[in-house]
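Box S1 | Example of a co-folding query
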Amino acid sequence: MAEFELLTLQRRDDDVAVLTLANGKVNALSRELLAEIETAVDELVADPPGAVVITGGDRLFAAGADISQFGGPDEAAVIGAGFHAALDAVAALPRFVIAAVSGFALGGGCELALACDYRIASERAVFGQPEILLGIVPGGGGTQRLPRVVGASRAKEMCITGRQVRAEEALRIGLADEVVAPDALMARALALAAEVATGALAAQAICKRLIDEGVETSLTHGLQLERVGFVEVFRTDDARIGVASFLEHGPGNATFTGH
Ligand code: COA
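Box S1 (continued) | Returned holo structure for coenzyme A
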């Protein structure tokens, strides 16, 4: 396993992996932290857990790109590439990835949360794309993933004003999927991850891929993809186990292998 300096990667007995950002007081997503995230995701892909939780600090999930590394267009090209490589890797993980957001998730922090499959926010969480206040635009997927989650008009309003969105509003606009009390955040994220981790993991991976590919394409093409995926899933052990278990013992009693 790689050594990390700016994050921790914990593999728990319940098959949940927890990636915790640990880069100083604001968890700035520096080039180095983005590279570590990519390496950590590579490790998770090579030996997949049952589910993943990504979290940050108590008061700050992450304050975005490391502004001290900004320069001109040449630096921007490198920083943008680093963001896309790391966050696309997170998004493509063939497992359910939960962001547990406590405190500020700004700029790249919000974009990292958006690259996850599901966002659980503490009541103290604050989301935003404040790049415009620096005279720039989001570069870690914010202009693309945010509108896909909250709709184009709300995304434009958020990105063009740089306004911060508190947890309750985030829940209302679909940016957060759940809001919980601050001291319940990790317990809820870990419980959901642990529940998912006992599921039919190969089928989950197919399901995630179909949904992600489907929202990128036309309904007609998406339905074609689903037809292929629906056949593919019947080649898994868990499809055989799940269907047989239902017929014998009723719903919800299958013990899956993850294959
Ligand atoms: N990159 C680099 N340094 C950052 C940073 C970032 N994204 N965000 C904060 N910092 C630094 C501050 O410059 C400050 O440094 P200092 O202690 O050497 O003065 C330190 O982190 C603490 O920040 P501060 O603003 O004093 O803390 P706060 O608790 O009052 O506010 C935030 C925290 C995150 C709300 C605020 O720092 C902020 O809005 N940060 C910028 C977010 C942003 O624009 N992100 C998009 C980047 S493209």
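The CA atoms of residues 67 and 85 lie 19 Å apart. Residues 25-26, 28, 60, 63-68, 104, 106-107, 130-131, 134 surround coenzyme A (CB under 6 Å).
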